[in-house]
Amino acid sequence: MKKHYLLTPGPTPIPLEVALKEALPIFHHRTNEFVTIYKDIAEGLKYVFQTKNEVYTVASSGTGAMEIAVTNLLSLGDEIMVASCGNFGDRWIKIAEGYGVKVISVLVKWGKVVKPADIERVLKVNPNIKAVYVTLTETSTGVVNDIKVIGEIVSKTNAVLVVDAVSGLVGQEFRTDDWKVDVVISGSQKGLMLAPGLAFIVLSDKAWALAESSKIPKFYFDIKKYKKSYGVNETPFTPPVTLILALQESLRLIKERGLENMWNDYKLLAKAARAGMKALGLKLFGEAPCNVVTVACVPVEIGCRIVKILREKYGVSIADGQGDLKGKIIRFAHMGYIGKVDLLVGFACLEMVFAELGVNIEKGKAVAAVEEELLKA
Ligand code: PMP
Fold first, then answer.
1. Preceding omega of 240 cis (within 30 degrees of 0)
2. What CATH number does residue 354 fall under?
3. Are residues 347 and 272 part of one domain?
4. What is the C-alpha separation between 223 and 58, in angstroms, rounded?
5. Contact 12 CB / ligand 1 (< 6 Å)
6. 131 with 248, same domain?
7. In terms of domains, do 287 and 249 share one?
8. Per DSSP, what are the bridge partners of residue 203?
9. 293 in the same domain as 202
10. Quick check: 365 pLDDT over 90?
11. Shared-domain flag, residues 225 and 317
């Protein structure tokens, strides 16, 4: 028998209070009971997204919300900009091209961040660009983009700004309205501390104006259906009712702790994780490390084995690199329901795996470095 620790950048562990809601008996969704819950959730989501606009809940993984943000804003042949610095930024390109949208890609090397000045320059020479798609925290490389500055730039143009906050929401400071972001999408299985299965999307008035002229065919992901149902506190299709109950609970927990406190909690965990990696003798990957996942370079000879041994021998799951980074980096998450003690467990086990793999490390040094940072709080 082995105890499991989920320290992957999604899905994340979920609090017991939330898990228990998912175990409750199923109830019908066309009822007053559901309406009451849905009204409560509507307020909680506005708080978490820091917006006055409606946040729509869709039964889907995060990628479904990405697809909504493409198919509901655009028409065949429209031009958009995707500023990508990793795997999830690249996903915008794949979705848009799949729907016949013309993509102007602003690609930066994985590990770097998107340069706001590049977005400004490309928008100037391509005035027909209808939307700019970026990622808040790029989960594949662990960097955070400067959405506030990008929002300022895009808001001065006719284009709308679309942000993927699937991994960044709750873990990283993010303010939809104040930062002039038009469309934000996210998912349930990361910062929101829920099981996978829900996606979220919020649209500004500027984005709705674009949505009015969108001609890409759609049905289940037609956001107008969600807007109409939202008006009467319903969903257009059968919602995963127990996940919705669990969402109500996780939103309550977030409100109780306070969003700004949570941003600071993850900031501290990120600092401690970075100190732990350095104490293990590893170089951090990425030029602007985010607060939800810490990414470090590992020797290629042992890259893939670290993750495997950690999971199989100690029950600790962290993530390997994606794409060209496979075997070259490890990704240690501190998003969702992951706290200080999880960090200590993760680093203690990493030390044991490194020792087992013959890496010359001083046992206890990484754990001590993590403790040192945590004690500063
Ligand atoms: N964007 C980002 C930044 C992500 O981290 C992920 C999930 N790892 C996705 C999009 C896709 O979400 P999902 O797997 O829920 O479809």
1. no
2. 3.90.1150.10
3. yes
4. 9
5. no
6. yes
7. no
8. 183
9. no
10. yes
11. no
pLDDT in tens, 80-124: 999 999 999 999 999 999 999 999 999 999 999 999 999 999 999
Residues spanned by the domain of 281: 5-11+258-374
- Regarding whether 367 and 238 lie in a shared domain, the answer is no
The pLDDT tens digits of the residues spanning 337-348 come to 999 999 999 999
Decide: 75 in ligand 1 pocket, CB within 6 A.
no
Does 262 lie in the same domain as 166?
A: no
CA 139 / ligand 1 centre spacing (Å):
8
187 pocket-lining for ligand 1 (C-beta < 6 Å): yes
The model's pTM is: 0.98
139 by DSSP, 3-state: which?
coil
Please state the atom number of ligand 1 nearest to the C-alpha of residue 168.
Answer: 3
Answer yes or no: do 283 and 219 share one domain.
Answer: no
Whether 135 is in the pocket of ligand 1, judged by its Cβ within 6 Å, is yes
Cα of 117 from ligand 1 centre, angstroms: 26
- When divided into structural domains, the chain yields a total of 2
Q: CA-CA distance, 156 to 151, in Å (whole number)?
A: 9
Helices assigned H by DSSP within the chain: 16-22, 32-49, 62-71, 87-98, 116-125, 147-155, 205-212, 223-230, 241-257, 259-279, 303-314, 340-356, 365-375
Ligand 1 centroid vs 62 CA: distance in angstroms?
A: 5
